[in-house]
């Protein structure tokens, strides 16, 4: 049987890639998940693993060819049809199974229960791996169907893995702290019956290759090794972003193009800490989510030409309107009338007039969005997340309030899916709920604009020649100056201000 090797999903808005390097040649024996080739897109380098064990029969796309998503790269003659030589290899690998594992499998099969694999669930678009954060069950524990077995951490959200059937947890193959690919195996369980208890002296065995800190020898991508040799760069000078710190060709290119630091510029090591202070410190490894937040925010500063413009809005009319109708609104729609729906509506209104704030840069193109997918930044115990309210420009006040309330609750509970945090075109961040009086929000790439709301504070204002006390709020719009000019940014903020100071303008589309 012949297995096709095809171009995997390359990520949002990426439609093609170039074949950079083939690590195997026709006739070579390959094992499942072994890296066959490396693709380069305009954003990242993608490794293509073997979908099955066997022999590489034919390479269709040669090095340097440009291929689209799902295009045929090569074909593999599956193990069973590859001939006597491969059969010997298979038998040799099988012979290396330890006696303990054989006994364990024998015991499980003797109980009459069916062995069920516990697999990594779908992690979402562009997410290819996760780290095993916590196992809630131990080997030998009885579990009910859909009972949560473990929790995985990706660079975006935490994912719970439920039991695929009722029975007993058998062998855990991916330990806490290990990184495992989407669709990978986490462990085994026996449906019905009860699995044998492991001997107390036995350490859990894993068929998975060692990862993380236990992986001492991480083989870099061949294309990366070749480029480092050509440029006379050592691996110590390159930060690997591949799995387990593997150095990719893109990492070498980044190291080459990075500006040379002055001799005095290297990051200084942490200053020595007195012993009595060190004893009272606590060192905690950053979660993948926190690492991703840090990386994305720094990338945003490094990539966009970010500026911030400010204005202030008199909240008198919005507060009066809310006070007058909030009880009737809640009674009819079953949700509280807050300020976020007013700001969302005002922003959607302003984005129609200044569409570049709702656009993004793709290479040398500007992509204008004829819709508004509004990101609403929300603080959670694990970090900042930005759930997206899709087509907010076509929603009513009640629909917006319901969507924000529902997604906010799911964000705090850690239940948001990846798809609910992707595709935003503009973002609103309300630092005022924490008491912030003024701040400069940072862009959420690839978006070109983000509005910062702040604390409502009574201040003396000069109105019609008289000093009066008014509830005022500072507004801050951070924007990408590469596509948004100062005039457009100021116009956007003025339109938001006008709509909030006279909410009737929203009804009249003025």
From TrEMBL:
Residues 199-219 have a biased composition (Basic and acidic residues). It is an enzyme of class 2 (transferase). Residues 2-77, 115-190 form the Lipoyl-binding domain. Residues 259-276 have a biased composition (Low complexity). The keyword Ligase does not apply. Forms a 24-polypeptide structural core with octahedral symmetry. Part of the 2-oxoglutarate dehydrogenase (OGDH) complex composed of E1 (2-oxoglutarate dehydrogenase), E2 (dihydrolipoamide succinyltransferase) and E3 (dihydrolipoamide dehydrogenase); the complex contains multiple copies of the three enzymatic components (E1, E2 and E3). Belongs to the 2-oxoacid dehydrogenase family. E2 component of the 2-oxoglutarate dehydrogenase (OGDH) complex which catalyzes the second step in the conversion of 2-oxoglutarate to succinyl-CoA and CO(2). This is Dihydrolipoyllysine-residue succinyltransferase component of 2-oxoglutarate dehydrogenase complex. It comes from Qingshengfaniella alkalisoli. The lineage of its organism: Bacteria, Pseudomonadati, Pseudomonadota, Alphaproteobacteria, Rhodobacterales.
